[in-house]
Amino acid sequence: MRAQVSDRRSALEAEIAQARARLARYTGDPDVSVVGDPPNVNIDRQTLLAQLDNLPSLRSLDAQTTAMDADVRIAQAAKRPDWRVSAMYGRREPRFGDLVSVGVSIDLPLFARRRQDPIIAARALELEVARLERLAGERDALAAFEADLAEHTMHHALLVNARDNLVPLALQRAKLDFDSYGAGTVDLGTALLATLSVAEAEVDLLDREAAVARDAVRIIITYSGEQP
Predict the structure, then answer these.
(1) What sign results for the dihedral spanned by CA atoms 131, 61, 139, 47?
(2) Residue 212 to residue 136: CA distance in whole angstroms
(3) Cα–Cα distance, 19 to 28 (Å, whole number)
(4) What residues are paired with 106 via a beta bridge?
(5) 198-209 pLDDT, tens per residue?
(6) pLDDT tens across 98-110, in order?
(7) Phi and psi angles of residue 26, each rounded to the nearest 5 degrees, phi first
(8) Contact of 136 with 65, CB cutoff 8 Å
(9) What are phi and psi of 88, to 5 degrees?
(10) Of 104, 114, 58, 52, whose CA–CA distance to 81 is shortest?
(11) How far apart are the C-alpha atoms of 49 and 142, rounded to whole Å?
(12) Alpha-carbon distance 120 to 126, whole Å?
């Protein structure tokens, strides 16, 4: 039993050391410490859904769609006649009088079917592709969001089960075994094993609380744009 407890302690100490190493990696401080209030772990589904369009991946697709729309407009503008008006004033000798000239030029888009129309069609197709990619990106983001929420809900259910059932049952079993040991119906090893089971159940409860908190923080940071 002592060897089992020692192994469990070593495993937990290793997890703590790994967590500190990860924290040092992100902060650059080799002697990191945790200060301040814990992060928010309350998830507001509707608020996060409303902020889904602010995801960097979707904003990038929005920018791509806007660029494609501008390309279509430019291609369409090239098909319209381009008017240019110019004016020039020249000062000459008094006996000749001043000179004013006005010029008008028009660029006519000739052979539109073979030149401008194919370009417009190509740009319009690229715009449609960009819009479809944006729609697919939104659906992917929503699916990932719902999957993360489902995993968080599962971890929360595991936490509730451990808190309301597993730990109380382990405590009850330990009490019964110690009472039985006092009555001489079980040996001391059985009673001590029940105590060890209580400790394991409480450590497992802490692990489940940590999993719920990690889920919540990751979901909030990912889908709300909040900086850690």
Answers:
(1) negative
(2) 29
(3) 14
(4) 83
(5) 988 998 999 999
(6) 666 767 665 655 5
(7) -80, -30
(8) no
(9) -145, 140
(10) 104
(11) 8
(12) 10
Tokens representing 52? 């889904």
What percent of the chain is predicted at pLDDT more than 90? 31
For the beta carbon of residue 63, count every other beta carbon within 10 angstroms: 11
User: Exposed/middle/buried for 215, CB within 10 Å: 0-12, 13-18, 19+?
Assistant: buried
How buried is 208 (Cβ within 10 angstroms: 0-12 exposed, 13-18 middle, 19+ buried)?
Answer: buried
Is the separation of the CB atoms in 72 and 120 below 8 Å? yes
Give CA–CA dist 28/33, Å, rounded.
Answer: 12
Residue 67, both tokens: 């660029």
Which positions ≥6 away from 80 have C-beta within 8 Å? 109
Q: Kindly report the pTM of this predicted structure.
A: 0.69
Residue type for position 103: G
Inter-residue contact 68 to 49 (CB < 8 Å): no
The strand pairing partners of 85, in sequence order, are: 104
What angle in degrees, to the nearest 10, is found between the helix axes of 188-224 and 167-183? Answer: 170
Give me the helices (H) in the chain, please.
Answer: 2-27, 45-50, 56-77, 116-161, 167-183, 188-224
Beta bridge partners of 107: 82
Residue with structure tokens 């996060």?
A: 48
Q: In one letter, which amino acid is 11?
A: A
